[in-house]
């Protein structure tokens, strides 16, 4: 199997992720932050180490400003439902995932907020910072933007938008699902108030991991209430991080595995990750050439793309292409709509969907060439 579905979840993981998961489950899988015995202390310290590694990666000053979640969706919900209040307005874009769009729609349906959707200006999904600035209203509390599109891979202008948010004193939520582990994300320099990330994609952790960074001073409400291991006699749920957003036992084995993924990632370095993605994308594009029967929706320039190649063969449905790639060639891709309906509407691909090829660090140039030849054959080119 040639796995080219890393934008959904990276696979394989570095060996140290597997070994950490096994040894944690076998030797130190006590409940972190609850009991005080030796095993619980080991468990707690591994969870803290992962918080510290995340802080290093995202330039976060206090590791306790990060709450662990089960995935990026949960982190985005905690952020959106936690900060927005009656009468607030939000600016977002048509390139966002349903994990942003659905919570916003839910709050709008309940009559709590309103939001504006900024449209991209080209068929790669590029969005201009000035159109985001123009959508700001006096009651805009939040700008919600992906670091990179999960449909086309296009890197969105989060640095410039961070500056706009700073000037206008608006909260800035970055959905780092496709950027974490690929792009340089510095919460301080980029004025990011809320950073939502999955652990199971570019950070190389197992599924069931993710997190939300909340900048100091951001007014937040919890969405879930319950046990936190702290202040057990107080009826009111804690209002301090991370306990405020971590009701219930966290996924400590997964978090320990995520810690191993982060150690691997920082050992390799983001520069090498990006260089490898560039080589893989170039191998694909070189092999496939300029076939007129294939339409591409992703930037070929790797400096503008977080590592996704999306395409369609006119006259075919994307799921048909995905099936042939799977059944005949043993290639795993994601075809369809990628939980991003507005992006597909904007790109004009809502009837067929797109075939999304997303290589990871462990893929080879030969695998990319093989995928390119397979698609060329399917296209009859
Ligand atoms: C841009 C974007 N946001 C959010 C998500 C949701 O991530 P998760 O599956 O970890 O909840 C994804 C998943 O593919 C994504 O690509």
Care to describe what's here?
The chain is α/β, with parallel strands linked by helices and 381 residues long. It has two domains: 15-267, Aspartate Aminotransferase, domain 2 (3-Layer(aba) Sandwich), CATH 3.40.640; 269-378, Aspartate Aminotransferase, domain 1 (Alpha-Beta Complex), CATH 3.90.1150. Helix content is 38%, strand content 14%. The chain has eleven helices and 13 strands. It has helices at 15-27, 38-58, 72-83, 98-109, 129-134, 158-168, 252-268, 270-288, 318-329, 341-347, 365-378, and strands at 2-3, 66-69, 88-93, 113-118, 140-146, 171-175, 194-198, 210-214, 295-296, 309-312, 331-332, 334-336, 354-357. The strands form three sheets. It has a seven-stranded mixed β-sheet with strand order 2-8-7-6-5-3-4, with helices on both faces. A four-stranded antiparallel β-sheet has the order 9-10-13-12, covered by helices on one side. α2 crosses α7 (252-268). The longest helix is centred in the first third of the chain and has 21 residues, at 38-58. The protein is globular and about 70 Å long. It starts with a strand and ends with a helix. The model has no long low-confidence stretch (mean pLDDT 97). The structure holds pyridoxal-5'-phosphate. Pyridoxal-5'-phosphate binds at residues 8, 71-73, 97, 99, 146, 150, 175, 177-178, 198, 210. Pyridoxal-5'-phosphate binds next to α3.
């Amino acid at each position: 199997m040639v796995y080219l579905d890393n934008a959904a979840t990276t696979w394989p993981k570095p060996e140290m992720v597997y070994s950490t998961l096994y040894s944690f489950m076998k030797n130190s899988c006590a409940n972190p932050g609850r009991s005080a015995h030796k095993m619980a202390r080991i468990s707690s310290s591994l969870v803290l180490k992962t918080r510290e590694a995340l802080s290093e990666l995202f330039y976060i000053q206090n590791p306790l400003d990060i709450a662990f979640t089960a995935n990026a969706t949960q982190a985005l919900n905690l952020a959106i439902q936690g900060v927005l209040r009656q009468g607030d307005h939000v600016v977002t874009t048509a390139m966002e995932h349903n994990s942003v769009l659905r919570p916003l729609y839910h709050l709008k349906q309940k009559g709590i907020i309103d939001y504006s959707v900024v449209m991209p200006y080209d068929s790669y999904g590029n969005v201009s910072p000035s159109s985001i600035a123009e959508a700001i209203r006096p009651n805009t509390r939040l700008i919600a933007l992906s670091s990179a599109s999960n449909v086309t891979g296009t890197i969105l202008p989060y640095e410039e938008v961070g500056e706009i948010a700073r000037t206008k004193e608006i909260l800035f939520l970055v959905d780092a699902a496709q950027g974490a582990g690929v792009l340089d994300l510095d919460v301080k320099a980029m004025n990011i108030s809320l950073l939502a990330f999955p652990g199971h994609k570019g950070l190389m952790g197992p599924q069931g991991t993710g997190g939300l960074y909340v900048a100091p001073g951001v007014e937040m409400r919890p969405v879930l209430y319950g046990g936190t291991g702290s202040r057990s006699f107080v009826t009111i749920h804690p209002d301090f991080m991370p306990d405020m957003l971590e009701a219930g036992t966290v996924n400590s084995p997964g978090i320990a595995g995520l810690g191993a993924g982060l150690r691997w990632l920082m050992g390799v370095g983001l520069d090498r990750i990006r260089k490898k993605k560039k080589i893989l994308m170039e191998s694909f594009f070189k092999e496939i050439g300029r076939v007129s029967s294939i339409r591409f929706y992703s930037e070929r320039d790797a400096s503008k793309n977080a590592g996704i190649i999306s395409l369609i063969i006119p006259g075919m449905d994307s799921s048909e292409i995905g099936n042939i790639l799977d059944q005949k060639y043993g290639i795993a891709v994601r075809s369809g709509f990628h939980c991003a309906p507005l992006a597909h509407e904007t790109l004009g691909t809502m009837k067929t969907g797109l075939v999304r090829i997303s290589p990871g660090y462990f893929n080879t140039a030969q695998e990319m060439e093989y995928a390119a030849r397979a698609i060329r054959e399917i296209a009859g080119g």
